[in-house]
Design a protein that fits this description.
It is a single chain. Helix content is 54%, strand content 13%. A 7-stranded mixed beta sheet has the order 2-1-3-7-6-5-4, with helices on both faces. Helix 9 runs antiparallel to helix 11 and helix 11 packs antiparallel against helix 12. The protein is rod-shaped.
């Protein structure tokens, strides 16, 4: 089996495996315990080392130092106290520990002594029946990764981005997992970027829907300018997406181009594939932002044109109404000697004159497109 096929197969979605006791996918987390540790295991020669009881990070590290392999510890939103012991056990740098605990970090790659600290922003598409001015389109989370020679620690923030299924898929491929912690780092990076691709496709559908609504002919009586709120909200969500994707491009390029002691050479070349996919998503997101700018400007221009049309119609009817107003105003003055006051046909003549003049003005304005 080729390496690229192994790598791609390991991170692609598959059916979730059975997690019954005794299966190779059994998690070490005690469901009744309030702990930030989601899973803790030791891997040797690409296979998970079975344990009779749930391992603690300290026990996992002792096992690794005694018999080799590497420990993979997964945590979800740990507190400072919960993470302090793990940080001391694995010699993690205080700055990286602070970032991992408090979250809300920019995607980045940093090296502290013999540890790589990587931050990924996960993106989840929020399903919605109809896009409105208050719809949430994307939801973000974070995955922080500590990569060492004999350990790999993930710290996850947010309700999305679970790595349980990814761990199971990697355990299905011992040959890949035998490459060590860098193989896990690549799998997580590829998993995160694949999520970006799926979200980008879904956001594209939302943008297409808004674009069609803006440029389609509005029905009779339909409100004008109602799409501006939806467009602006979608633009804000795309901006959040962009903040997750764009900063990650440089770290992926470094992982794929710069030799690193903590990254297996056989794994490093496949970070190029991740960087390539990420660059494509980044171009899509930038294109989304520019397209939404154009759609918003077009929508505002349409609203301005519609307002101008309304003003022309109002002005036209005001011009027509001005004729009878002027004539009736003249004959409403309290003067005894007025033209045609005693004439038998004065009233029909005035009304006829009003009708003829108003009809001529209406026809002229309609011919010019004002009505």
């Amino acid at each position: 089996m080729s390496m690229i096929r192994d790598l791609r197969a390991a991170v692609r979605p598959q059916l979730r495996k059975d997690t019954a006791p005794g299966s190779p996918y059994e998690t070490t987390r005690d469901a009744t315990a309030a702990s930030a540790v989601v899973d803790c295991a030791v891997y040797r020669d690409g296979r998970r080392v079975p344990s009779e009881a749930p391992l603690t990070p300290h026990e996992a590290m002792l096992d690794v130092r005694r018999d080799g392999g590497f420990a993979w510890i997964g945590l979800h939103e740990p507190t400072e106290d919960e993470f302090a012991g793990i940080a001391r056990e694995f010699g993690l740098h205080p700055l990286a520990v602070e970032d991992a605990v408090h979250a809300h970090q920019r995607p980045k790659l940093e090296r502290y002594d013999d540890t790589l600290f990587t931050v990924f922003k996960t993106i989840h598409y929020v399903e919605h029946a109809e896009l409105t001015a208050t719809s949430e389109v994307v939801e973000t989370g974070e995955v922080m990764c500590f990569t060492g020679r004999d350990f790999f620690i993930t710290v996850r923030h947010g309700g999305q981005g679970s790595l349980r299924a990814l761990r199971h898929r990697l355990q299905d491929d011992p040959e890949l997992l035998a490459k060590g912690p860098s193989a896990v780092l690549h799998a997580i990076a590829d998993h995160v970027v694949d999520g970006y691709i799926a979200v980008a496709d879904a956001v594209q559908d939302d943008i297409d829907e808004v674009e069609i609504d803006v440029f389609s002919q509005p029905g009779k009586g339909s409100p004008r300018g109602t799409d501006a709120g939806r467009i602006y909200q979608l633009k804000r969500e795309v901006l959040e997406f962009k903040r997750a994707v764009s900063p990650l491009l440089r770290p992926m390029q470094l992982l794929s181009e710069r030799p690193m002691r903590l990254v297996d050479p056989d794994i490093q070349k496949y970070f190029r594939d991740v960087a390539d996919h990420l660059a494509r998503v980044q171009e899509q997101v930038v294109g989304f932002d520019e397209l939404l700018n154009s759609i918003l400007q077009a929508n505002l221009a349409q609203a301005t044109v519609a307002q101008n049309e309304d003003m022309r119609k109002i002005t036209s009817w005001a011009a027509i109404v001005a004729v009878p107003t002027m004539i009736c105003g003249v004959y409403g003055m309290n003067f005894e000697h007025m033209p045609e006051l005693k004439w038998q046909y004065g009233y029909p003549m005035v009304m006829g004159s009003i009708a003829v003049v108003c009809f001529a003005i209406h026809r002229t304005l309609k011919r010019n497109g004002w009505l």
